[in-house]
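Action item from last week, closing it out:
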Amino acid sequence: MSLRRRTAEVLIAAGLLGVVAVPPAGAAGHGRPVPLRVATYNIHAGAGMDNVFDLDRQAAELRALDADVIGLQEVDVHWDTRSQWRDVAGELAERLHMRVSFAPIYSLDPTTPGAPRREFGVAVLSRYRIVSAENHEITRLSTQVPDPVPAPAPGFGEVVVRVKGMPVHVYVTHLDYRGDPSVRIAQVADTRRVMAEDEGRKVLLGDFNAEPGAPELAPLWEELTDADPGAPTYPALNPVKRIDFVAVSKDGVRVRDAAVAETLASDHRPVVADLLLLRR
């Protein structure tokens, strides 16, 4: 039995699906909620806790999540030797038979004339057709220039996928890692501004580099629900804090269940969440 089916049966048996009111069949303008499994995973540029680059290992772990949509952070595309100059986003999509949208944070000239651009950023993998994609700018403090100052930069990816006829906005992000929260404060404000431009069902996936109760994340919870998996995500070996998130709009999406997968294929653990998309 698949993990997806087993989870659904456990939820039904426990009566958890009853928390969402399902209109009777044939009710005007309504229908049954549609399940969607999503995940977020900081893949550490393809390397595990052992710092060994191994896409086979990561593809296997991603496949085991059985997710419909996956947000990835720290994704290399022809970046450098650490990922063997490979298109990590494209290769993972191909191995998982999923569609891909890559949103670079950095896009640099190649070291060799005629070679592909060196890029690093975030990506979305999807079993569903990607209707549109956009790479939004948010405030960043670059790691690629000397003496950086906070400034708008790309790498906040958004796709719209159509699930059983319903459009869903999926965003993937990687917030600043520094102890000083000032850049994250600006990034949260930018995130809310970008997301407010869209209507309907929304899912935010990412490595926030802050724990759920961090003051800089508090504004997010005004519009979003945290799919709390009940376990820490970082570091992958003996994790002590939860900095990886699945969050959903309070309108049109409900969280059925969430969990952290135990794996050392990256320095983070992935979060997987079972959602219900509500028809209007």
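Closing note: The first helix runs from residue 3 to 14.
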